[in-house]
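Example 4.3 (complexes with small molecules)
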Amino acid sequence: MIAFRGGLGAGKTAMARGLARGLGIRDLVTSPTYTLVNEYDGGRLPFFHVDAYRLSSAGEFEFMDARSYLYGGGLCAIEWSERVRDALPADAVIVDIEPLSDGSRKIRIEGALEEIVT
Ligand SMILES: Nc1ncnc2c1ncn2[C@@H]1O[C@H](COP(=O)(O)OP(=O)(O)O)[C@@H](O)[C@H]1O
Ligand SMILES: [Mg+2]
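Answer. The structure with adenosine-5'-diphosphate bound is encoded below.
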């Protein structure tokens, strides 16, 4: 599971699109801000794209059936993951995106990447 961190416009959805493309998903990936979660089944693995922006706690995330996304046999990517930090698995890969003033981005990746690529 990939946990994105970074404010509005950081590039979280753009990176989620890249993940979807890597899975071979051809659908247009849009921000799940209002739906909370979008599921794409057309790729090598199911892709669960969650946006926690409107959630106020880990408990709320669990209430919306987080387990079925986190452990649903696919890849789960969460935008605004800092809002549901306590509901994330210990092996979450954290991707911090920080836009810099020159238009570039500083990206810090932390966690067990080998879990993702096998
Ligand atoms: N790495 C990048 N390089 C250039 N532009 C980017 C990059 N990542 C995102 N953008 C642009 O920044 C804007 C916000 O990106 P988005 O992924 O929607 O951010 P977030 O989901 O974090 O709010 C979009 O217009 C997007 O095209
Ligand atoms: Mg977004």
